[in-house]
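[step 3/7] fold_predict: job queued, chain A
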Amino acid sequence: MSLRSIPKKGEQFRLNKYIAQSGLCSRREADERIANGEVTVNGNLVIEMGFKVTMDDKVEVKGKALNPEPPVYLLLNKPKNTITTTSDEHGRNTVMDEIEHATGYRVYPVGRLDRNTTGLLLLTNDGDVAHRLMHPSFKVRKTYEVVCERPLTDVELAGFQKGIPLDDGVAKAHKVQGFTDASDRFQLSVFEGRNRLIRRMVEYYGTEVTKLKRIKYAGLDLKGVPPGRWRFVRDKEIVDLRVLVKLKPLEKVVTVKKAATKTPKRKKKRKKR
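[step 4/7] structure written:
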């Protein structure tokens, strides 16, 4: 089941909300597009902040028609060798391939995981939630399970919380937990989302990450979701996500098809000759 907010027929709501619900961007970015003269309503240029529309209006951004959709949230356990993008010109497997036919609505990955990093990835068409989850000011916690080429000492593990000097600034872990049964494996939580952050922090100690898996993100976890499978984010989890990023709960609730945990079979891609 999932929460969805659907305006009634004829109900007026702000233009920036219409654009955000189309999955294009957040409301703040929508306001910038409106101010820049990129938006038309029923063929007329609109630059007025707070302008209201209905579901019957035709809204275009740079000539591209938008279709507001009810918010959809999916949780994917991303497998290895999968690109976090909506498409790939080289024909490589993407996260969109992993959730193909999962929903009739367009969704987009929130942030990204490296090709060889596995684990929890959130996908949604809720532009407001996605923008805030990725913004550093909201300090969204991300927890990873890390395996290194060599075991790290207790001093080195403690160093993650003290701070690791990187080329783009000091990086600090919020929490680090080692495992008594595997000295080369540990868990690490951070609030940042810099490129290859965990790998670079480990490389500071002269070793490399051999396996990296995100096991928690913004209060969500992978319980009951095997690699390569997905599920809809539950109602309570959606409420918690919106509270986390200081957004009001969705006003209207409707049911959707039962959450799936098995990725539907995909057609094999034809190899280019």
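[step 5/7] annotate
The chain has a mean pLDDT of 87.
The chain has three domains: 13-65, 73-136+220-244, 141-217.
exit 0
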